Amino acid sequence: MSSDGEILLACIAALAAIIVFVAYAKLPPFLAIFIGAVIAGLIAHVPVEIIAKSFSKSAGGVLGESGYVIAMGAMLGSVMTKTGAADRLAEFIIARTSTRYLPWVMALTAMVIGLPLFFEVGLVLMLPLIATVSARSGQSLLRIAVPVLAGLTALHALVPPHPGPIIAITTLHADMGLTLLLGLVIAVPAVVLAGPLYGKWLSQKASLATVTQLATLPEPISGLRPPSLLLTISIILLPAILMLIRSISLYVLQSDSSLAHLLDFIGEPLVALTLTVLLAILTLSWRSGMEKKHVGETLTASIAPVAVLLLTIGAGGGLKGVLVEAGISQSISHFASQTHAPLLLLAWGVAVMIRQATGSATVATTTTAGIMAASFQLLPPVESSLIALAIGAGSVFFCHINDAAYWMIKSFFGLTLRQTLWIWSVLQTIVSLVGLIMASILWMVLVPS
Question: What is the pTM of this model?
Answer without folding.
Answer: 0.78
